[in-house]
Task: inverse folding
């Protein structure tokens, strides 16, 4: 059973064919490296999966059920979480507040609902422990390293029992040591049975964690194969078009 | 309480002590009562301004709203004999509408808060002056409204009710800001609107709500000011009040970049501003220098705060380096 299946997804912006007949299936716990040059359609594909907009044609299946996402919240409810490149987190808030941003737990004091800070801290501490991250719930995000921020963003996805996590360039702007941290986080997600779609330009990172590599070129899926059966050279060729398809 | 709030509190006490040493009248019941009244009046709308500033916006129309709604309120009660509870309801209702208009123009039409509320400042002042044909709106001679007066300008145990009203509003807004989901979302929207939107927060609603809160508190302040001055001169009533509110909010630790602030800080900011006004009066400084004193103290306060923060972070770095070297 695949957790996510795309069947013949196409997306047009006026005269531009951003995605052309893309089909793809992802198993639970699988880490898929989604690669392609700028403008190859990676972002469009991610936005279709995340429910930012509907495909012009084609179907999205989650756990073999056909889905029609009208807004990102629909996708979120179906178990799809996105970790954005510029990290959708607020610097002025604590790690715990960020993990729960947009879905704060409340408790009632008389007639008024107040934010349950104690629960937020406890639960996010558990999530950080699960991710084997040393992030502390009370720490302000603006004092954190890039890797810790990623941990916060990823802990958000655990909160909602996500089935699929889409990560847009999570290793683009951080130091080498932090990259290792983030790759570990991705492995943790995978170990918990969560599928990860890793969009990245960094070949070593993809080959480090991904079990499958998918290459898009000019809106078409030109490769979908096991990482162990491919090589960075081959993928580079596929991205640039030096190799037609594989 | 945040560190900034404590620093501000200390500053208030130090300034108070200095003024008291130069002029003991500072702590006389009459002076304290009068100052508390002014703190209440200005604190009411400064809290609203703080909420708007926390979203990263600004509301420049507050003073004009106070003038326009003051004129209308006085006219409704004094001229047309509308029962005062109805007049209060209408005034606050107008506040809601003004806030909604600002919020919708800013979120739906994507206009800048500065521009929208600057136009508001001009429009409301203009309407107030046009509506009254530049004449002062006042209550008829000899009229009295005991309940309304008790609520607005009355005192209990020497404490002005305007001050109590401000404390109640502050308490409610403190819970709203620091302990409700809305408060969390307000800080999130102010700091990183995109992140807030991606997190599923209705950012438009949050922003609009902040402007409505600001305008509603301004409308309540308008009633208190109108009752305090008893007559409203449409061209000068409430002039520059938005700047008092902004100054109080900024003194109280609200960042103009949004996302930061505390209700206690804003209230303390309003206290300090009135203390400075009082200082000018009590120390015999020509009242024409009023604004200059205020500006200088705010500037020094902000400067000191920044220097102190830089000093603290330097100390922290040194300590961390020291620990590293020991290892």
Result:
């Amino acid at each position: 059973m695949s957790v996510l299946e795309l069947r013949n997804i196409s997306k047009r912006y006026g005269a531009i064919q951003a995605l052309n007949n893309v089909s793809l299936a992802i198993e639970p716990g699988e880490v898929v490296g989604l690669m392609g040059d700028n403008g190859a359609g990676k972002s469009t594909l991610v936005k279709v999966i995340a429910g930012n907009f509907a495909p012009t044609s084609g179907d999205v299946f989650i756990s073999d059920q056909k889905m029609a996402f009208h807004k990102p919240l629909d996708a979120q409810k179906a178990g799809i979480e996105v970790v954005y490149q510029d990290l959708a987190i607020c610097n002025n808030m604590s790690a715990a507040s960020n993990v729960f941003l947009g879905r704060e737990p409340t408790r009632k004091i008389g007639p008024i609902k107040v934010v349950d800070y104690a629960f937020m801290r406890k639960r996010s501490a558990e999530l950080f422990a699960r991710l084997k991250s040393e992030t502390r719930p009370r720490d302000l995000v603006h004092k954190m390293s890039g890797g810790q921020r990623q941990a916060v963003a990823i802990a958000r996805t655990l909160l909602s029992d996500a089935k699929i996590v889409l990560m847009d360039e999570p290793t683009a702007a951080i130091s080498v040591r932090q990259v290792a941290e983030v790759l570990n986080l991705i492995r943790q997600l995978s170990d918990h049975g969560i599928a990860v779609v890793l969009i990245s330009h960094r070949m070593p990172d993809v080959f480090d964690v991904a079990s499958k590599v998918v290459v898009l070129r000019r809106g078409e899926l030109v490769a979908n194969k096991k990482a162990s059966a491919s090589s960075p050279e081959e993928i580079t060729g596929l991205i640039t078009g030096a190799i037609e398809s594989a | 309480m945040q560190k900034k709030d404590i620093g501000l509190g200390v500053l208030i006490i130090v300034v108070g002590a200095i003024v008291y040493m130069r002029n003991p009248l500072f702590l006389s019941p009459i002076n304290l009562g009068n100052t508390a009244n002014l703190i209440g009046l200005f604190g009411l709308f400064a809290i609203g301004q703080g909420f708007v500033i926390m979203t990263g916006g600004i509301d420049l129309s507050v003073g004009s709203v106070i003038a326009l709604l003051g004129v209308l309120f006085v006219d409704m009660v004094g001229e047309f004999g509308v029962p005062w509870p109805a007049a209060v309801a209408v005034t606050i209702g107008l506040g809601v509408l003004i806030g909604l208009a600002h919020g919708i123009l800013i979120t739906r039409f994507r206009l800048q808060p500065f521009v929208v509320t600057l136009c508001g400042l001009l429009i409301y002042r203009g309407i107030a002056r046009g509506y009254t044909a530049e004449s002062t709106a006042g209550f008829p001679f000899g009229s009295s409204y005991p309940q309304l007066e008790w609520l607005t300008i009355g005192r209990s145990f020497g404490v002005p009710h305007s001050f109590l009203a401000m404390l109640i509003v502050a308490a409610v807004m403190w819970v709203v800001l620091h302990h409700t989901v809305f408060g969390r979302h307000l800080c999130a929207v102010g700091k990183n609107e995109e992140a807030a939107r991606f997190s599923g927060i209705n950012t438009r609603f949050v922003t609009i709500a902040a402007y409505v809160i600001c305008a509603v508190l301004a409308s309540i302040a308008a009633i208190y000011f109108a009752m305090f001055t008893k007559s409203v001169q449409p061209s000068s009533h409430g002039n520059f009040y938005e700047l008092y509110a902004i100054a109080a909010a900024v003194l109280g630790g609200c960042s103009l970049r949004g996302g930061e602030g505390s209700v206690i800080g804003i209230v303390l900011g309003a206290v300090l501003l009135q203390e400075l006004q009082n200082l000018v009066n009590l120390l015999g400084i020509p009242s024409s220098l009023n604004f200059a004193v205020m500006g200088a103290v705010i500037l020094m306060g902000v400067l000191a705060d920044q220097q102190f923060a830089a000093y603290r972070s330097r100390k922290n770095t040194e300590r961390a380096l020291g620990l590293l070297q020991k290892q």
About this structure: The two ends of chain B are 36 Å apart (CA to CA). The interface with chain A takes residues 175, 179-181, 183-185, 187-188, 190-192, 194-196, 198-201, 259-260 of chain B (CB under 8 Å). Chain B has two domains: 3-285, 289-327.
